[in-house]
Amino acid sequence: MSSTSSNDPSSVARDAAGAAAAPRRSNFIRDIIDRDLAAGKRGGQVVTRFPPEPNGYLHIGHAKSICLNFGLALDYGGRCHLRFDDTNPEKEEVEYVDSIQADVRWLGFDWGEHLHFASDYFEQMYAWAEQLIRDGKAYVDSQSREQIRENRGSIYEPGKDSPYRDRSVDENLDLFRRMRAGEFADGEHVLRARIDMAAPNMLLRDPLLYRIKHAHHHRTGDAWCIYPMYDYAHCLEDAIEHVTHSICTLEFEENRALYDWILDQLPVPAHPQQIEFARLSLDYTVMSKRKLLELVRDGHVAGWDDPRMPTIAGLRRRGVTPKAIRDFADMIGVAKANSTVDIGKLEFCIREALNPIAPRVMAVLDPLKVTLTNWPEDRVDTLDAAYWPHDVPNEGARPVPFGRTLYIERDDFAEVPPKKWHRLAPGAEVRLRHAYVIRCDEVVRDAAGQVTELRCTVDLDTRGADPADGRKIKGTLHWVSAAHAVPAEVRLYDRLFSVPKPDGDPEVDFKTHLNPESLVVRQALVEPSLAGTPGDQRFQFERQGYFVTDAVDSRPDRLVFNRVVGLRDSWAKLVAAEAGPQAAPSAPAPRRDKPAAPKEPAGPRTSERDQRRAESPELAARFERYQRELGLTREDADVLSGDPAVSAFFEAALLAHDGPKTVANWLVNELQRELKERPIDQLPFDGRAFGRLVALVDRGAIATPAGKEVLAHLLAHGGDPEAIVRERGLEKVDDRGALEAAIATVLADNPDEVTRYRGGSKQLFGFFMGQVMQATRGKADPKLAKQLLTEHLAQGR
């Protein structure tokens, strides 16, 4: 089973362009651009730029800026330039230039012919610097760096004029030209703007424009030994390239006055507008290039592309998709005030992007041998196991062998099981996924008392069926056949830091907060369908999480899997367990390398809900009505009547949509995680909005994946479900012509997979369905898409 093409650059680019072509979401930057266009400013054009310094690898904070700048250009029919601000040769390398271009392309964006470098304009910048000198607006200062800093003053007192501030124009020109000619040592002179040493904005107190650096430049070699300062160069680069809206982060807000001052003094061809927005801050993460370099240099990580790093290279190697990053950037939006984003939002977007493209397989990370004593030694059954769950509109299956000796997860067995244990224990029964029901009869130990084997019996009548006598089997375990399993190294990556703000205290070294369990390596066994899997293939290991074959170390003959993300966020549970007074002695200790146990339903626990109903006749009556009149299960009725706020929310939702079972299902399941983190009455939307969202899905106006996307937006920003659907273009695509075109494009872009499918690899149908759903952003009508795709593949179109 292949998932390679989900990362094909052309398909990613189409997805990005398609997303950008959808109706635009409003924010303060778009409001500014809309007003400018309405007023006819700058010829009605929109030209943006992404201007990285080639002094390190890009991280997810840069990804937000990339998505913003390129996205605006796509939305408004303009263009976005990729421009390297290569004005500091001591820290710049060609390696960084290449990696940045690769990262931007991987995210799905293209700058076309507009690849630029600050060094392209060095000669023009120098000429304009001489003009500032001739106009009396710049001078050569010969103070030391320390003297310049000391004489700048403070926010409480003005600065002092340099003793060289009144040099003549001729003397300044002579010194500046000799600086360029290499006659002086580093730091001996600088060129400064002559503005106002008493300016309230300290950046206007005669800022530096040029400094001497005898350093080899990666593009210009040794042609220059003076280099422009960023504040001088950046605005001129924007003007030369006719950038209309120069979008930067909030720390440059004070620099805007200098940006405009420089442009006002010179005959530049354009006057861009600088707009500032809040940069991305992510908890459990550091974003400083200096600190990231320190982690790499000191060996705390394996390089810039270590999957624990927040770099785009690290995220890519970890298995995160470009779509997940773009969706994350869209979810968090654009704001004017700095804030820290919950990393759980990123993990949510990663799961949502992987769910429709990652086939489900079985892998055992900590194997415990199981022998089926009543199974013939030489008998091997071949089970037909689906790659996809029922709620993912893909098809495809693989054969899974089943024999006498198996392996299960060691954590799925407890000799003295805790309360409500639904896994294996002496005398207990469980179902093996896709297979039979087994019962544990005997526990085998080694000389040290370690459990080494379980001897079980299999109910031979339960293959794909419940026990004939009606007994209920509550637990289902994943497994692999001992004779057919493939060994693999599994790298369980977790958050690199153990606290939300690792660099929050300047007095404490941020590296003291490194998480010692951010990487746990296991020698695992995976099902035989994964044998020979190439690198960069994504899968969901059932009950474990999403994994990817490592693009660097994995080989078909030596598989290495990286955990991309768990199935649920176990971090909060782990922190609570470690901070709590004590765990029950019989309960298994929390682990970072296992998915969280099934979450409690939304609202208080059952005992607390019972108490609330005992105190409230209204809640008690609703508990009965939800079961008797609305047809809800006792479990759902318990959740929805056990807390006044939850019940009021549900009642309000029913006023908007008369579909109690569907509303209950979405509330209990889709809102479940959110209600564990904040009370339902603190959500940024009410029950009526929630009911209208469920109604959109119920009546087929939008597909289920689109409904989840709308819910994610509501959770982050609130709003009106119908308006969100319109703004994001999420209406279900049931137009035959549009689906025909999408399918034709998918097949044309994946000729190798088409040939393999027509040659007999029918399991690839699920892959094609996933590509069609991705191409339509989850909006395709699954039934119609399946029908048309089947026709296309069968007829050889």
Helices and strands, with pairings:
Elements: H1 9-21, H2 28-38, E1 47-50, H3 60-75, E2 79-84, H4 94-106, E3 115-117, H5 122-134, E4 138-141, H6 145-150, H7 169-181, E5 190-193, E6 208-212, E7 226-228, H8 230-240, E8 245-249, H9 256-265, E9 273-277, E10 281-282, H10 289-297, H11 312-318, H12 322-332, E11 340-341, H13 343-354, E12 360-361, E13 363-364, E14 367-372, E15 381-386, E16 397-402, E17 405-409, E18 429-432, E19 437-445, E20 451-459, E21 476-477, E22 480-481, E23 486-493, E24 519-526, E25 538-541, E26 545-549, E27 559-566, H14 571-579, H15 606-615, H16 617-628, H17 634-641, H18 644-656, H19 660-670, H20 672-677, H21 687-698, H22 704-717, H23 721-728, H24 736-749, H25 751-758, H26 765-775, H27 782-795
Low-confidence stretches: 1-23, 569-604
Rg from Cα: 31 Å
Roughly what is the average pLDDT, rounded to an integer? Answer: 88
The major β-sheet equals: 7 strands, mixed
First-to-last CA distance: 23 Å
**Tally of extended strands?**
27
Q: Strand sequence of the main sheet, in spatial order?
A: 12-25-26-27-23-24-13
Give the number of helices: 27
Which structural class matches the secondary elements? Answer: alpha/beta
- Fraction in beta strands: 15-25%
Approximately how much helix is present in the residues?
25-40%
Shape: elongated
Structure in a nutshell:
This protein is of the alpha/beta class and 797 residues long.
Features of the shown structure:
single chain; 797 residues; alpha/beta; seven-stranded mixed beta sheet; 27 helices; 37% helix; elongated
